[in-house]
Amino acid sequence: MQFGILGALEVTDGNRQLPLRSIKQRSLLAMLLCHHGAVAHSDILIDALWGAEAGQAGNQRLRLQLHRLRRTLGAATVIEHQSTGYQLRVPPDSVDAWRFERLVREGRQALESKSLVRGSDLLRAALDMWRGPALSGLDDISFLHRQATRLDEQRLAALADRIDADLRLRRHAQLVGELSALVREHPLRERFRGQLMLALYRGGRQAEALEVYRDGRRILSKDLGLEPSLELRRLQAAILTSDSSLGAGLTGANGHAVHRRHDHRHAGGCPHCSKRAR
């Protein structure tokens, strides 16, 4: 049995997709999955599913929905009753979001050990698991909305880390299109903007890199009354002066990073690109 929440909720058994026609069943299963094997308190489930209208019948309604969910999922999927709520017991690799988080951890560990190709590949594999917005169609429940937001932030951070690795692997030419779309979609996320500036600069497009900075500065000033971050301003200054530290990150034949003494200030390519997305 496989469970997917990185997109619309789906449950598959082999090649067969199980029907979860009731919005209550889908929401209940999604909340159990988002507890990542921990106990989901009954009060939280009842409040999310029925709110104030649950009244005194809340626990009875919850037990009925759990009975229907167990019948749909079959005996192989265990939902245990605990003193405070219910616990979904499934193997870690049966939930796409859990696999995503594991692959992201492994990818970052590889990057920390300077295994850039392996790190990039692991992060790419994690990101390829996404089928659309997390928990699509269920985020009108506040708990699930918060979980969907959390997962999407993890996706964007993993994407920025993968792009950092690809920049260090001299893949800047292939990144310009992807980064241009990301900057249009997330104009206030300076990490993507800095990565696009660096990719353009390394491709010999210095003027375009500086224009990307000016566009971001205009947006921040007009919409928020802010200036770009110190990291982005430093990157702009380095591009203006063609600072040698902005040269492509060096890699050996096996994809492991090689550092030169004068590159220590920007071991990740630029001071901005090692920062988390804002």
**CATH topology descriptor of the largest domain:** Serine Threonine Protein Phosphatase 5, Tetratricopeptide repeat
> What is the gyration radius calculated from CA atoms?
23 Å
Let me know the number of strands.
6
CATH class bucket of the largest domain: Mainly Alpha
Question: How far from one another are the termini?
Answer: 36 Å
List low-pLDDT spans.
256-269, 271-278
**Domain module tally:** 2
For the residues shown, what is the average pLDDT? 90
Helix and strand run: EEEHEHHEEHHHHHHH
Major sheet, described briefly?
3 strands, antiparallel
- 3D shape: elongated
Q: In percent terms, what proportion of residues is strand? A: 5-15%
Number of helices: 10
Report helical residue fraction: 40-55%
| Name given to the CATH architecture of the largest domain | Alpha Horseshoe
Q: CATH homologous superfamily of the largest domain?
A: Tetratricopeptide repeat domain
Written description of the protein model:
By secondary structure, the protein is mostly helical. The protein has two domains: 2-93, Arc Repressor Mutant, subunit A (Orthogonal Bundle), CATH 1.10.10; 170-278, Alpha Horseshoe (Serine Threonine Protein Phosphatase 5, Tetratricopeptide repeat), CATH 1.25.40.10. Helices cover 54% and strands 7% of the residues. The protein contains ten helices and six strands, in the order βββαβααββααααααα. It has helices spanning 23-34, 42-50, 58-73, 96-112, 116-127, 142-168, 172-185, 190-202, 206-224, 230-240; strands spanning 2-4, 10-13, 16-17, 40-41, 78-81, 85-89. The strands form two sheets. A three-stranded antiparallel sheet has the order 1-2-3, with no helix packed on it. Strands 4-6-5 form a three-stranded antiparallel sheet. Helix 5 (116-127) runs antiparallel to helix 6, helix 6 runs parallel beside helix 8 (190-202) and helix 8 (190-202) runs parallel beside helix 10 (230-240). It is elongated and about 70 Å long. The two termini are 36 Å apart. Mean pLDDT is 90; it is low at 256-269 and 271-278.
